[in-house]
Amino acid sequence: MKINLAVIPGDGIGPEVTSEALNIIKAAAGRFSHKITLTEAAAGGAAIGKYGEPLPRETIDICKQSDSVILGAVGGWQWDNLPGDKRPERALLGLRSSLGLYANLRPAVLHAALSGACPLRPDIAQKGINIMVVRELTGGMYFGDKGRKRTDMGEAAWDTELYSAEEVRRIAVRAFESAIKRDKRVTNVDKANVLESSRLWREVILSTAQNYPGVSLNHLYADNAAMQLVRDPSQFDVIVTTNMFGDILSDEASQITGSIGMLPSASLGDSNFGMYEPIHGSAPDIAGKNLANPIAAILSAAMMFRHSFALSSEAAAIESAVTQTLEAGYRTADIYSEGMKHVGTKEMGSLIKKGVMDFAD
Ligand code: IPM
Ligand code: MG
């Protein structure tokens, strides 16, 4: 297969983890005889330096001409005081909406080798964690009307949570389709006891569920869901939720699996095109020090092979190389514990790469 990828390394640890992910992609391409072409593009702080804006037109064009996008992370303290529409984070939101990537899949899995890194009580961790957060990605509060005005209480500001039935329907379909391939359970998370947007959200989830009689559905309010995630995460299979609740709950889900440095994500639309990125941020405090965990970026590459190119052996080769490397005791600082072998970003990448090249179907 010939695969054209756009690569956006971004800021902070983005370039380091992306470089390891690309090594793994090349290794998998070599092992399974694919031809990969890479085109680099700038976004986030890196683009502000070069073009004066976080998401230049050229970057969107490069992405649109590619089969998929590999992204590192954006943001950093240098840009923290810029106005909202000039900040590096705008690039992420702009990429998601201009590429039509409304469905964000964030799997949170507790690897057996890392059960010691789970901050929950051992009797809870022991029951296992294998959750797929399906987060709506191009609607809701992050994209709704916003602004500021003077009031008699002084300066005021607002953001709007707005969802159309169609936006809810298409993300619901993603969640149910994903559940069919998993444990066939969907939990809808909303705040229908308070928000009108959540009441419409829930109605559409319920009507979409009619088409999936084999999948069981339950509903939780977002505050309760946050609590249930730490009380008993084994109760969840697929969680479907709004942009904002998904942002919050996916960070929580990542932490209970040991480290946010482990979790990949896929952002998808209606075609096979996708954008793949670790869910962690740019971590400027450890950037350039060979300390970052590249596993989230590497597992994002595995998701790319599976979701955009239907290459499941390639994905499995990467995932099993990660598992093997962890089982052999190798750990970056974020997941290190007594008695394990401490390695840096590059060493972790090389060990996983070797596992991919040696992979036997
Ligand atoms: C994420 C991040 C982004 C988001 C930020 C950086 C804009 O937190 O991908 O979860 O809120 O979506
Ligand atoms: Mg987030």
Ligands in the model, by name, code or SMILES, are: 3-isopropylmalic acid, magnesium ion
Order of helices and strands: EHEHHEHEHEEEHEHEHEHEEHHEEH
Q: Unreliable runs, pLDDT <50, ≥5 residues?
A: none
Strand content: 15-25%
CATH superfamily of the largest domain: Isopropylmalate Dehydrogenase
Q: How many alpha or pi helices?
A: 12
What CATH calls the topology of the largest domain is Isopropylmalate Dehydrogenase
Overall average pLDDT: 96
- The CATH class label of the largest domain is Alpha Beta
Strands of the widest sheet, in order across it, are: 2-1-3-12-11-4-5-10-8-9
Give a short account of the largest sheet.
10 strands, mixed
Q: Which overall shape is indicated by the principal axes computed on the Cα atoms?
A: globular
Q: How many individual domains?
A: 2
β-strand number: 14
N-end to C-end Cα span: 18 Å
Q: Which structural class best describes the helix and strand composition?
A: alpha/beta
Level-2 CATH architecture of the largest domain: 3-Layer(aba) Sandwich
Rg:
20 Å
Describe it for me?
The chain is α/β, with parallel strands linked by helices. It folds into two domains: 1-109 and 263-361, Isopropylmalate Dehydrogenase (3-Layer(aba) Sandwich), CATH 3.40.718; 119-256, Isopropylmalate Dehydrogenase (3-Layer(aba) Sandwich), CATH 3.40.718.10. It has helices spanning 14-32, 45-51, 57-64, 89-98, 122-125, 165-180, 196-209, 222-231, 243-256, 295-309, 312-327, 345-357; strands spanning 2-10, 35-40, 68-73, 103-109, 130-136, 146-151, 154-159, 185-190, 216-221, 238-241, 264-268, 274-278, 330-331, 341-342. A ten-stranded mixed β-sheet has the order 2-1-3-12-11-4-5-10-8-9, with helices on both faces. Strands 6-7 form a two-stranded antiparallel ribbon. It has a two-stranded parallel sheet with strand order 13-14. Helix 1 (14-32) packs parallel to helix 12 (345-357), helix 10 (295-309) packs antiparallel against helix 11 and helix 11 crosses helix 12 (345-357). The longest helix is centred in the first third of the chain and has 19 residues, at 14-32. The two termini are 18 Å apart. The chain binds 3-isopropylmalic acid (IPM) and magnesium ion.
